[in-house]
Design a protein that fits this description.
The structure is a single chain. This protein has a single domain, classed as Alpha-Beta Barrel (TIM Barrel), CATH 3.20.20. Helices cover 45% and strands 15% of the residues. It has eleven helices and eight strands. β4, α5 and β5 form a beta-alpha-beta unit. The chain is globular, with a radius of gyration of 17 Å. It starts with 6 loop residues before the first strand and ends with a helix. The protein binds cytidine-5'-monophosphate (C5P).
C-alpha cells in the first residue's frame, strides 16, 4: 500500500462547508476521510454525497454501532447501501451482533470494510471493571474482543499504536488495524493519551492512520499531510 493511502483525515466539525473545504484541499494527498457522529448529526447524511462530490472517494463512517444483532444488521445494510468504504461497530455488542453485521454488509454488491472498536481508549482498566465488569484489564480485553471480531468475519479493528504490535502478532497479517492518536513531533497531544508518530504507528503494524487536529488545525494542512506521508515513506 502506498504511504498516501494509509492516511485517513478525521473531519471533526459540525460545519459541512468546512468539511467540504478540507476534502477539496486534501483529497489528492490522502487515502480517505473519517466522518463521525458530530458531522452527520449536524449536517445530515446528505453530507456523504457532498463529500464525494468534493473528491472523497473513500469515506470511513465512524458510526460506532452497538445494539441488538437484528438492529445493527439492518443499520449496517442501510449504511452499506450509502456506499461508504468503511464502517465500525462496537465489539462489546458481542459475537452474534458482529456476525449479523458481517452478514448484512456482505449482502450488498460492494460491501464496506467492517472494523470493530474494542475498548475505547478513554477507558482505564479500573473504569472497565466498573462499567463492563471485566477484570481482565484493558490490554487483554482488546485482544479478546479483536479475536471475536476476526472470528465473526470482520475486516479489522480500531486500536491505538500501543496495542497494534500485539494485535498484529496475535491475529495475523490479514487483520486491518486502524489507528487514531497520531501526532507529529512538536504537536500538542490535546486530549489524546496513547499517542504515536506516523512512522511509529506503521512500524508497530497499523494499516490506516486516522489523523484529525494534527492536520486540520494546522495553518498549512496540505504541507502537514505531505510531511506525514514523507514520514511514513521514510519509516
Ligand atoms: O484530532 P485527533 O487526531 O486526535 O482525532 C482523532 C480522531 O480519531 C477523532 O475523530 C477521534 O474521535 C477518533 N478516535 C480516537 N480514539 C479512538 C477512536 C476514535 O481518537 N479510540
Amino acid at each position: 500500500m502506498q504511504a498516501r493511502e494509509r492516511v485517513l483525515i478525521a473531519l471533526d466539525t459540525s460545519d459541512a462547508e468546512q468539511a467540504v473545504a478540507w476534502v477539496r484541499m486534501l483529497a489528492p494527498h490522502v487515502g480517505g476521510f473519517k466522518v463521525g457522529l458530530e458531522l452527520v448529526h449536524a449536517a445530515g447524511f446528505g453530507v456523504f454525497d457532498r463529500l464525494r462530490e468534493a473528491g472523497a472517494e473513500r469515506i470511513f463512517y465512524d458510526a460506532k454501532l452497538h445494539d441488538i444483532p437484528n438492529t445493527v444488521a439492518r443499520a449496517v445494510r442501510a449504511i452499506a447501501r450509502m456506499g461508504v468504504w468503511m464502517v465500525n461497530v462496537h465489539a462489546s455488542g458481542g459475537r452474534a451482533m458482529m456476525e449479523a453485521a458481517a452478514e448484512a454488509a456482505h449482502a450488498v454488491s460492494n460491501p464496506p470494510l467492517l472494523v470493530a472498536v474494542t475498548v475505547l481508549t478513554s477507558l482505564s482498566s479500573q473504569e472497565l471493571r466498573e462499567q463492563v465488569g471485566t477484570r481482565r484489564g484493558a490490554a487483554k480485553q482488546v485482544i479478546h474482543l479483536a479475536t471475536l471480531a476476526k472470528e465473526a468475519g470482520f475486516n479489522g479493528v480500531v486500536a491505538s499504536a500501543q496495542e497494534a504490535k500485539t494485535l498484529r502478532r496475535r491475529l495475523g497479517r490479514e487483520l486491518l488495524i486502524v489507528t487514531p492518536g497520531i501526532r507529529l513531533a512538536g504537536d500538542s497531544a490535546g486530549d489524546q493519551r496513547r499517542i504515536a508518530t506516523p512512522s511509529e504507528a506503521v512500524k508497530r503494524g497499523a494499516d490506516y492512520l486516522v489523523i484529525g487536529r494534527s492536520v486540520t488545525a494546522d495553518a498549512d494542512p496540505v504541507g502537514k499531510v505531505l510531511q506525514v506521508v514523507r514520514q511514513i515513506q521514510a519509516r
